[in-house]
Amino acid sequence: MSHADAALGGESSTHMHAALELASRVRADSSPNPWVGCRLVATDGRVFEGATAPPGGPHAEIAALCAAGAAARGATAYVTLEPCAHHGRTPPCTDALIAAGVGRVVVGTLDPDRRVNGRGLEALRAVGIEVEFGVARKAVEAQLAPYLKHRRTGRPFVIVKLAASLDGQIAARDGTSAWITAAAARADAQRLRAESDAVLVGAGTLRADDPLLTVRDVPGTSPLRVVLGRIPPGSRVQPALSVGGDLDAVLDELGERGILQLLVEGGATVAGAFHRAGLIDRYVLYLAPALFGGDDGLPMFAGPGAANMAELWRGSIVGVTRLGADLRIDLVPGAAAAHDGPDAVSFPMAAP
Ligand SMILES: [Zn+2]
Questions:
Q1: Domain boundary among 88, 123, 149
Q2: Catalytic residues
Q3: Within the chain, how many helices (H) and strands (E) appear?
Q4: How many Å lie between the centroid of ligand 1 and the Cα of residue 285?
Q5: Domain count, the chain
Q6: How far is the CA of 89 from the centre of ligand 1 (A)?
Q7: CA 102 to centroid of ligand 1, rounded, Å
Q8: N or C terminus of the chain: which is more exposed, having fewer CB within 10 Å?
């Protein structure tokens, strides 16, 4: 690689990471569309930015092209996800990039949606636009993981969220569980809920806690509320979708409804069932500096656990965040090497 090439690679990566940052700002608002960021660098060096608007609004590329106006001619577009080449709620972004006279398009990853899947890049190449893809790919794929999983498998990305003491219990002997963690962790959990398309709880949790499962105190809309089992009459969660039994069928149904990210909020019985079925893509564990101090509380996962060390489930920690006095640990199945995206940052452990 020549010196110039190395500089170019570094510059592409810088612009792609800036596009990722743009996308992160619309994370809670763009679903069911993918949260995409676009950075347009004009021939005179000026930079124009765009991110996906809520459904029906412009995609990231269109927003950046509008900001750039005539300066788009000959510019380089850095887009986290391959531009769409099909008519959805809006016309294809490839047509707009071509019409604006963009000279080069750099893409983080291909869009596995069967209507795109390489066709976007092909359409650009066909008219002589220089195309590059795979820049900052791991970081882009980590950010878009729920969308990519949905398009590849037809199922939502499943996150299980649990708040526990450091000795791994989520409720006391009398069944009470409010509030193990403090305000900062609870606000973070609200953001997680706001960026999810659906939240799921077991009917037992409704009977015990009667949660609202809405988004409060942070921006964002409340997700679809899903109850596993029969919804107890008079519970505050209504309206909600009640689904039954087989978890594979539940995920298929939610995928068909366009749910990209499902947040499983408990309780322990539901968490245990999802865990043992191997259906969890990410565990978000909020841990408080507290100990129940016995073996008669409620563990994170109800039901039979590992019978021996050979059955011990092992994953990788991809994020550790201090939230006030509490910790958030993000855990994923599999070896760490597969997950060294932006989440693999270890956060400094400052004093609270
Ligand atoms: Zn588009």
A1: 149
A2: 61
A3: 10, 15
A4: 35
A5: 2
A6: 9
A7: 15
A8: N
Q: Are residues 169 and 295 in the same domain?
A: yes
The separation between CA 248 and the C-alpha centre of its own chain, rounded to angstroms, equals 20
Per the structure block, which two tokens stand in for 22?
């743009």
Q: Are 20 and 37 in contact (CB under 8 A)?
A: yes
Q: Are residue 141 and residue 162 in the same domain, yes or no?
A: no
Find where tokens 């195309």 sit. Answer: 131
Domain that holds residue 136: 3-149
- Could you state, in chain order, the average pLDDT of each consecutive group of 10 residues for the chain (352 residues)? 47 96 94 95 98 94 98 98 90 96 97 94 96 95 96 98 96 89 95 95 86 83 90 82 90 96 94 97 97 95 96 95 96 71 40 40
The rounded Å distance from CA 135 to ligand 1 centre is 19
| Residue 349, in any domain of the structure | no
CA–centroid distance, 262 to ligand 1, in Å, is 24
* Strands, E assignment, the chain: 37-41, 47-51, 76-81, 104-109, 130-133, 157-165, 169-171, 198-202, 224-228, 241-243, 261-264, 282-288, 298-299, 315-323, 326-333
Using CA of residue 60, residue 62, residue 67, residue 72, what is the dihedral sign?
Answer: positive
Q: How many residues does the chain have?
A: 352
pTM summary value? 0.90
Question: Residues with Cβ within 5 Å of ion ligand 1?
Answer: 59, 84, 93
- Token pair belonging to 352: 């609270």
User: Is 95 in a helix, a strand, or coil?
Assistant: helix
Nearest one of 332, 306, 293 to 142, comparing CA atoms: 332
